[in-house]
Amino acid sequence: MVLPPLLKKRKGGKEMKLDKKLQGLIAVIAFFGGIAMLIGALAMDFMGSTFEGRGPILVIGILAILFGMYLFPTEKHHRKIINFIFLFPLLFTFLVTVIIPLLLGFYYSFTDWDGIRMRNYVGFDNYAKMFHQPSFVWSIVLTFLFVVLNMVMVNLIAFLLALLCTNKFRGIGFFRAAYFVPNLIGGIVLGYIWQFIFSNVLVEFTSKVFNNNYSILASSNTAFLGIIVVYIWQYAGYIMLIYITGLNTVPGEVLEAAAIDGASPLQTLFNIKIPMIAPSITICTFLTLTNSFKMFDVNLSLTGGKGSIASFMGSYLTNGTEMLALNIYNEAVIKSNYALGQAKAVLFFIILATVSVLQVRISNKREVEL
Amino acid sequence: MHTKEKKFSLIAKVIIATIIAVYVLFPFALVVINSCKRTQDITANPIGLNGVSFQQLISNMNDVVNNTHFMFWQAFGYSAIITVVSLVLLAVFGGMAAWVICRNHTKWSRFIYFLFISSMTIPFQVVMLPLVSTFRDTGKFVGIAMLQSVPGIVFAYCGFGGAMTVFILVGFIKGIPYDLEEAASIDGCSPEGTFFRIIFPLLTPVITTVTILNGMWIWNDYLLPSMMLGQNGAVKTLPVAVQAFVGSYVKQWNLILTAALLAIIPMIIVFLFAQKQIMNGMIEGAVKG
Question: What pTM, to 2 d.p., does this model score?
Answer without folding.
Answer: 0.90
